[in-house]
Amino acid sequence: IAAFVQLSFAILVGVILMRVYNWMDSGINGLFFRRHHAALRGISSLSAGLSRAESLEELERLIASEPAIALDLIDGAVYRQTPHGWYVQMATHCEPLPSQLGSDDPLIARLRTYAEPLRLSPYLLEKIGSSLSEQSLALAVPLYVDADLHSVVLYGAHANGSDLDPQEVSAMVALKQPAELALRSLLRQAE
Predict the structure, then answer these.
(1) How far apart are CA 69 and CA 64, in angstroms?
(2) Among candidates 83, 72, 84, 80, which has minimal Cα distance to 55?
(3) Contact (CB, 8 A) for 80 and 57
(4) Buried b (16+ CB within 10 A) or exposed e, 98-136
(5) Residue 130 backbone zone (phi > 0: left; psi -120 to 50: alpha; other: beta)
(6) Sorting pLDDT into bands at 50, 70 and 90, what band is 140?
(7) For 33-52, what is the mean pLDDT?
(8) Secondary structure class of 154 (helix, strand, coil)
(9) What is the pLDDT of residue 95?
(10) Digit-coded pLDDT (tens) for 78-99
């Protein structure tokens, strides 16, 4: 019975220490990284608000520009598939990107194959032969509607040249599902 009491006490102390650590971590982030913390909260609240977009254009503008502005990124763009298979830039923020991507662009092919967000680098874009290899892109998020790649959201690195950190990537990737639901809803309304 003594071993059980010691084990229970050790678990209780571990849980208390973990909560204290989380509380301190949150406090330090809020105090010293206030702007970054606010940007991540803003992206999180955007995720909840995407369903209120009244048009495809508004939705695309929101998912391209809001994270780019909040995190001070050099790029944020949405490419929507046309009936001819090309992906045409519908919304953009900051640095100019190509106005369209071919359906045969290796980045598009890779997003179709894996159907998951993809971390980008100039090396990767050059290696796969994408037409975007000259851009400072950091993340590609595919948006699917009924198993078809409907749109691609591209985000660049920070304006100061630093790469996206894992929290930022997670926040932007978390926009994928709400954006797909909003897209599906807006497309059904348009029919």
Answers:
(1) 9
(2) 80
(3) no
(4) beebeeebbbbbbbeeeeebbebeeebbeeeebbbbebb
(5) beta
(6) very high
(7) 84
(8) strand
(9) 66
(10) 999 999 889 998 888 876 788 8
**Closest listed residue to residue 91, CA positions, set 68, 61, 69:** 61
Helix H or strand E segment including 115: none
User: How many other CB atoms are found less than 10 A from the CB of residue 24?
Assistant: 10
Structure tokens at 108: 């598009």
Instruction: Quick: pLDDT tens for 144-163.
Output: 999 899 999 999 999 888 88
Extended strands (E) in the chain:
75-81, 87-94, 100-101, 118-119, 137-145, 148-156
Q: What share of the chain is helix, strand, coil (3-state, %, to 5)?
A: 55, 20, 25
- In the block, tokens 């348009």 appear at 190
- Residue 106, SS3 per DSSP: helix
Tokens at residue 21, please?
């650590």
State how far the Cα of 150 lies from the Cα of 96, in Å rounded to an integer: 21
Which tokens hold the place of 163? 């790469």
Q: How far apart are CA 107 and CA 114, in angstroms?
A: 11
The separation between the first and the last C-alpha atoms of the chain, rounded to the nearest angstrom, is 68
Tokens standing for 119? Answer: 């971390």
Q: Which residues pair with 137 in a beta bridge?
A: 156
**φ and ψ at 33, to 5 degrees?**
-120, 45
